[in-house]
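Supplementary Methods. Inverse-folding protocol.

Structures were first reduced to a discrete structure-token string of length 232. This string, shown here, constituted the complete conditioning input.
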């Protein structure tokens, strides 16, 4: 008797694609909910909704960004075919800004820059996860492929500028409250505003590296286009 062929749903490739599809779907639903919530609140309450953006959707935003750390594991074990360092830089930017800068300072949570930053992040992620989700099941649309490889070009630098501005606005509060600043043995101390200022410079260095990688990736993907397309 020849070897027994496993059912399609038991094959490793099928299980991997099913897992990725569910992961991308969950992320898409989360970011879509955030973006829709922000849009409805803005048209309902106007500028008043901007001030309490973090209080309304901050929990879901933190949940989505925390789950996105799984993408580093995906790349490390080979589930996703991507470069680890660029993705690490992108995720580190968001985690530091969201959890360290914004979440730790209530005064920063009420700034307009938080609303702007969340809009940029969710625009990018809704398109990216839609493209990734459909790609896993072998569906591709020319417009979506082009959009996923192009939208980041103007928005990603704006994200970095907004992140830098959020850090700048948070500095007085870190200086006043001494958050994360601590004394070490031997008369040494960590003054956290200095750490943020150093990170502020590194943020733009990381942006250059990430932008170069994304541009190279865009060139390679669009070069092999057209790819298999399913009629809409």
């Amino acid at each position: 008797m020849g070897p027994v062929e496993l059912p399609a749903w038991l094959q490793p490739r099928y299980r991997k694609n099913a897992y990725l599809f569910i992961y991308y779907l969950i992320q898409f639903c989360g970011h879509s909910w955030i973006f829709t919530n922000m849009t409805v609140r803005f048209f309902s309450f106007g500028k008043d909704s901007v001030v309490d953006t973090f209080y309304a959707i901050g929990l879901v935003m933190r949940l989505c960004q925390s789950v996105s750390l799984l993408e580093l594991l995906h790349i490390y074990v080979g589930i996703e075919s991507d470069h680890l360092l660029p993705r690490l830089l992108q995720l580190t930017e968001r985690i530091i800004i969201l959890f360290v800068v914004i979440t730790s300072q209530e005064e920063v949570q009420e700034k307009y820059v938080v609303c702007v930053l969340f809009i940029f992040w969710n625009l990018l992620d809704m398109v990216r996860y839609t493209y990734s989700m459909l790609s896993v099941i072998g569906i591709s649309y020319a417009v979506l492929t082009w959009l996923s490889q192009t939208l980041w070009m103007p928005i990603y630098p704006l994200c970095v500028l907004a992140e830098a501005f959020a850090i700048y606005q948070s500095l007085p509060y870190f200086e006043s409250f001494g958050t994360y600043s601590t004394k070490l043995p031997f008369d040494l101390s960590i003054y956290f505003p200095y750490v943020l200022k150093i990170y502020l410079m590194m943020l733009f260095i990381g942006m250059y590296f990430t932008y170069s990688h994304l541009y190279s990736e865009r060139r390679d993907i669009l070069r092999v286009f057209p790819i298999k397309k399913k009629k809409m």
